[in-house]
Write a structure and sequence with these properties.
- With 221 residues, the chain is α/β, with parallel strands linked by helices.
- It starts with a strand and ends with a helix.
- It binds cytidine-5'-monophosphate.
- This is Cytidylate kinase.
């Protein structure tokens, strides 16, 4: 059986990880959530009182970190040096600081290297911002997932509600827009669609419809 690399990029909360997990499970591939790696470093930096602007200290901290994943039903657990941080890396303080951490070239260099090692043997679905452009430029299938900011904020709002967390839709919208702006305007590997990526607007599509479209693209490879 041929195993390929599937790269899924796009702005915040476009549904990348949801569809990536479903596809990886179906194909028996590895799922790699690269955003979780940037979040893990951000979490550790906050915990150690390291400024998000201090590239040197961030890289030093990162080199001491083993970031690992463990499958957990449809989801994935995340660990830093054996300590579980699955939920902690999704908290607002981490979310709002992660774009500053991920803007540093040396931070990206180290994490991209780790991501390329994970994907080296194929059979991987990887999601992030620069997978098709920088991490896996020769990936057989590249997807650029987008949705309107309103739709993305609403999805996140409902997801939070289902976890019993009440958030303001307006605040969510602003946070998503801010993060997209920072991720698209940084100097090193900004969020941008790879030339050979297939653009999918998921605004009026269900998860299953998005998965089916990507499945078709994988099948013809
Ligand atoms: O995918 P997620 O929203 O969890 O990513 C969190 C943040 O990590 C992004 O907003 C971005 O700043 C950074 N990131 C990145 N490159 C990737 C994946 C994530 O810069 N490949």
């Amino acid at each position: 059986k041929k195993t390929i690399q599937v790269a899924i990029d796009g702005p915040a909360s476009a549904g990348k990880s949801t569809v990536a997990k479903i596809l990886a499970k179906e194909l028996g591939y590895i799922y790699c959530d690269t955003g979780a790696m940037y979040r893990a470093l951000t979490y550790q930096a906050i915990k150690n009182n390291i400024e998000v602007t201090d590239e040197k200290q961030l890289v030093h901290l990162l080199k001491e970190m083993i970031i690992s994943f463990e499958p957990n039903k449809g989801n994935q657990k995340v660990f830093i040096n054996g300590e579980e941080v699955t939920d902690a890396i999704r908290l607002t303080d981490v979310t709002n600081a992660v774009s500053a951490v991920s803007a540093h070239g040396e931070v990206r260099k180290e994490l991209v290297k780790r991501q390329q090692e994970i994907a080296a043997h194929g059979g991987v679905v990887m999601d992030g911002r620069d997978i098709g452009t920088a991490v896996l430029p020769t990936a057989e299938v590249k997807i650029f997932l987008i949705a309107s900011v309103e739709e993305r904020a609403e999805r996140r709002y409902k997801e939070n509600l289902s976890k019993g967390i009440l958030t303001s839709l307006e605040v969510l919208k602003q946070e998503i827009a801010d993060r997209d702006y920072k991720d698209s305007h940084r100097e090193v590997s900004p969020l941008t669609q790879a030339q050979d990526a297939v653009r999918l607007d998921t605004t009026s599509l269900t998860i299953e419809q998005v998965v089916e479209k990507i499945r078709e693209l994988i099948q013809i490879k």
